[in-house]
Amino acid sequence: MGAASVSTPTLAIGPNSAAPLVLSGQGREIAFAGKGGFHIYDATSRAEVPLPNGVVRATGAAAEFAVTASGLRLQATFTPQENYVLVSGWIENTRSDERGFIVDYRLPPFAVDATFAGDFGAAARIAGAAAREENVFPIAAMGGARGGVAMAIPPSEPRVFGMVGDAQGMATRFYLGTSPRTVRFPNRASFVFIIYPVDPAEGFRGALARYYGFFPDYYRPRLRHPGLFMFQMGDRVPRNVAQYGLDLIEPQWDPQVLGAAIARDEEYGIAKIPYLIVGQREIKFLPRLPRDYDAAMAVFQHWTVADLAGHMLTKENAASGGDVHLKEEVESSACTGPDGRYSLELRKTRWGGNSVTFIMNPNPELFAGERRRVVGRDALELGRRWLAEHPEYDGLYVDSVGANWPAVLNYRHEHFTYAEYPLTFDPEGRVALQNTLSHYEYIAALRRWMRAQGRLVVANGIYAYDSRGDRGGPGKPMKIRRGFDEYIAARALPEYYRAGTRVGRFFCASLLDFASSELGVGASVRQCREIRAFLGRKPYALLNYHWRDQARVETFVNRCLAFDLFASSTTNQFDGTEYEDNPDGYLRDRKLLNWFVPLARDLAAAGWEPVRHATVEGAEISCERFGRRGVVYFTLYNDSTAVQPCRLQIDLPALGFRDDAVIAEIARQADVQRVGARQVQLLLPPQRTCVLAVSSVTMRP
User: What phi, psi does 89 have (nearest 5°)?
Assistant: First the structure.
């Protein structure tokens, strides 16, 4: 590479390849030993692609690499930026067919003690270790005594990815499909990633913290008054109305109810967000559940809007404009499997009865320039109408961004034409759209519009989960029970090349101002930590319908406090039981929420910080830090069923404090013993959270 400023990271690469040689930055140089650079696997023909020597040439401060191999070309540009080296490029299929490629860029180990970390687990030694691939976070770090380096994919460049650590080092991996049908990039697929130095002691957390700093607009909190999530409340005024921060407006409400709800929310500063769903379109209230795909399609062909007569208007119906254009939307926007059949589910729900649910591609650019109704454009137009009718609305909501409707590969060739981001492929090497990226396209369009108006974007279903594996192949759906009384004919195909791997909604979360999910009391510590990392400092709520069991609710609220997630028990949408006036609901939990909400708001105001500058000792104890200056908080959560001793070592100087800083427990007034200037110990009750406040002066409990 050419010259750059002293503070700008630079990466020297090999003369006939893009193999990394030396990364300079933050006052250190890391020299890589071993074979690195690009590696390509043709997933369609299932063969490695040998790469001959390429050409590297300097263009100012950047370096360009190009190589031609059998049936493909690859080009990449390495450009020093203020805080990282930006790598952008593409792979091109020079044949006329569709192909899937696994494209790796590898940094070889730079020390015998090098470790890899692609999530919050302990960093693993690379030497002699089995290969490890993480697919939840597009960020990973490699560290050692001589320094640390991270790789990441920017939030503006979503891809199907993997972050890999093995004996050969650390790699950013892209699962890229090429097709002549992608008009924006025929026969090509692009990739973008960054390389930057990190403190080796901070590992994955340090890489994540720097990432947030690189892309501040994606992680800046914008909700003015974070609080509980008001769901299915209508115009009722709960006793703890001041504890709420956001209200989901359901567009099917009676105008009088809607007006009263808006007035209540205005009075208490609660953000008002109307409901939209773009991932599915559904025909409901069928006399019987179709037995298979053919029967479902026969019902669909004969279905009309008149069939809704006499049935309640659900929020999903209202969010699709009364289903007036449902058939047109399905015909234009429904995803298909490799056999050309629509992707659908047969299910029975409390709110819709026997239903056929079509899985939709919400990209608003589908069939652009044609006079066709598509789900994404129709949803944006409906949102415009609602905002014109009710300018008091603070933004728009997107439901079901989780493991339902985005979690499918879409093989519909005419949709390839309108893709903004690269295609991917399935375990058979067949090229497809990942429907999560199509949801990103819709949310990104919504975000641009909401930003221009000073409004918010909110979505439900932001979490990580184990993706679907192969359940018998196409044409062999399995009827399963998924919670409550919902029956589903499950999709048989995997949603990812690595069928069954753990995936999440990191990129979609970067576009949001507030997010939620319905994991409720079932949310694990791992899921809570992943959720917090998806949002950074932005607020999040866990909706909970299972609030009858007091012990589970208390554990749920404490676990949420540990990660500053707003624990929102609410009307049970499966049986309609209201929470706010129930003796087994809010009336029982009032004291608990009066304790929880002020603490959660204090933590939200301070802001989550991935780098703790502290180490914790104790079994099954989670520790997170909130705040940068003034007052810094540490949450300590004991996930075991027994009292656990806990010892916390705090690097006070790193946090800007002297050794005489005050350290007090403010959630339970627990007894905290100072063990030396920078260490405290205390006993943590089972499945409870304590909050330590570090300040220069004594704080009130």
Answer: -170, -170
